[in-house]
Design goal:
The protein is an alpha+beta fold. Helices cover 30% and strands 28% of the residues. The protein has a six-stranded mixed sheet with strand order 1-2-3-6-4-5, covered by helices on one side. The longest helix has 18 residues.
Length: 130
């Protein structure tokens, strides 16, 4: 039986320590990444929405890299949005920079009312390269 292993990116621990969760869990050849937000190093939110989304993807990239993965290894994405109708264009603009060509990962977007001070969160499942 495969045991889960916590994965953390370098220099990115304020929210994980404060709220008691792992950035990602490796289980076999799968990586389950916790929701990544556009937080600064101290855990506070980036106030500009587009920069917050870009920073969330940068934080995701760092977590993936800590497990030897890239965006190309992502198979499933779930994003959470506090105002989907107003934010969708900006999110799609940033998303296009990351996932510009097919095949695209699965993607589920969910509108929510609260993200602990943030306006965007992204969680993924990736396959760890062998």
């Amino acid at each position: 039986m495969t045991k889960r292993q916590a994965v953390f990116p370098a220099n990115r621990h304020a929210l994980y320590e404060e709220h008691g969760y792992s950035a990602a869990i490796r289980s076999g050849d799968l990586l389950f990444v916790s929701g990544q937000v556009g937080s600064l190093a101290d855990g506070s939110p980036e106030t500009d929405f587009e920069l917050q989304v870009e920073l969330a993807f940068e934080n995701l990239k760092a977590t993936l890299a800590a497990a030897g993965c890239t965006f190309d290894d992502i198979v499933d994405v779930t994003t959470f949005h506090t105002d989907p109708e107003q934010q969708f264009g900006t999110i799609m603009k940033v998303k296009q920079k990351i996932f510009g060509t097919p095949p695209y990962p699965n993607w589920t977007a969910v509108g929510v009312t609260w993200l602990a001070g943030f306006d965007f969160e992204i969680k993924v499942i990736a396959r760890i390269p062998g």
